[in-house]
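#structure-requests
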Amino acid sequence: MRGEGKWICSLLSVGMLAGAIGCEVSADYEVLGPGEVPDNLPDPPPTPREIMFKDLDINGDDQLDKAEFSVGRGAEDAARWFERRDADDDGIISREEYLPSGPLGYAPPRKPSTN
């Protein structure tokens, strides 16, 4: 009966309730609060769009010029999509413009023209 209590505390030491019921938390585990993330998690795998951006970025400067962006596209299609993605009209597509963080993957809204 006595060993049974220690076993239950050992199981609970992995969870956040261990301290609340008086169990000793093992030093092998880091107890995190709500919303906290461990520091030692591996980076998530790249998304298909991140892989595509890297493949298109031929010179590795972390941005796409018109020639890089146009690879594998028809001229008209490439021009239309380049204009849509180049939200700040600087003639390049940044990683942020190509890999928008929105859940639907939309290009960021175009900035108003200063002309």
